[in-house]
Amino acid sequence: MEKLKSSITNMVLVLTGIAVVMGCVLAWVNHVTEAPIAQQKEKTLADGIKAVMGGGELKVTKTDTVPGNVNGKECSFVVYQTADAAGKSLGAAIESTTMGFGGDLKVLVGFDPKGNILGYALLEHAETPGLGAKADKWFQKDGKGNIIGQNPEQPLVVSKDGGKVDAITASTITSRAFLLAVNNAYKAYMAVPVDAVTGATQKATTE
Fold first, then answer.
1. pTM of the complete model
2. How high is the pLDDT of residue 127?
């Protein structure tokens, strides 16, 4: 059998063949893993909603998307309205995203029917480990910047800017971004009908 001659044409054909095969393999792997990844994301979100709403049995009764504008950039907030087994409103969990020090800072915030903060979780961030990344604990009930139980009707502001919330040490930018995400989440919460008990509609705008 004649040995394949080395030439530009042959090299291109071989590389093209390899690229096609690898492309097919990657497409197959993506197809196989797509469903499990989606299921894991759904589970992570469901666990997050339960956690920020204070735990216990609950169900998401409705999902709303509220348009908004953060720092001049159009965005949207996802509102997961929740209720207990008897159908009584427990409040809602809201996804809110702002720009932190290192990139997007996505927060899930839980509110009771009166707008008080029940809990929060960082869904995504690119903050500096050991500094801005501390936001996942810093503002919790046992953290130095505790915001649990507070109502952002009066926006939450770091003490350095005249507010009452202690900023993360050496991470004021991240702290401001985090509180902006929480404040915007509250506005989105107020922008949709969530009071299943009274039927009242809460309205506000996200700025």
1. 0.74
2. 63
